[in-house]
Amino acid sequence: MEHKFIPYQQKELTKEEQLTNSENFYQLLDKRRSIREFSNQSVDLKVIENLIKTASTAPSGAHKQPWTFCVISNPAIKKQIRIAAEKEEKENYDRRMSDSWKEDLEPFGTNWEKPFIEIAPYIIVVFKKAYDLVNGEKHNNYYVNESVGIATGMLIAAIHNAGLVTLTHTPSPMNFLAKILNRPENERAYLLLPVGYPKKGTEVPDIQRKKLTEVLDYYE
Predict the structure, then answer these.
(1) What percent of the chain lies above the pLDDT cut of 70?
(2) For residues 185 and 78, what is the distance between their CA atoms, to the nearest angstrom?
(3) For 133-140, what is the mean pLDDT?
(4) How far, in Å, CA of 78 to CA of 84, rounded?
């Protein structure tokens, strides 16, 4: 089979531009923090759409793009999601989570209550497609978790770049999300992201990221 190819186009940067761009991008993302206190200040839907388009540029196995991003602003649906999420989270904190896990979470001041689900102007629920459905027929997808993970990381970076904040929330198990949002059988909830502005006066834990020497090994 013959496949169509087109010329790859990218602006060529000088070594100085590469260094400057890489440093600036690092400095930008180094300011990113997970936020749990949101303002209800509105966000332009076009911005949200641009964030989703950015996430969708991610590489994926065989270019299957096995993801769906559900954007929720409807207060009634957000309330449903919060009730169901808090039910699972309370069960986690009361019975499922080990003592060591809860000890590791203590510095962050988390608990089973998730008011941000209702307060943030938008909730983005990321679904992974275990397989595609085309005219009722199943078609394989490949490296689904890896592909959706990359897309989600790019989404989080795009959110921060737009001057907004988010939080990765995984109210496990998340089967209730597919039910509330009436998603097709081939989709599985992967992650929930509240998106908006931080509440005025919001504080974050005083924590440090690992040093470069702790996360990098050279093989020369």
Answers:
(1) 100
(2) 22
(3) 92
(4) 10
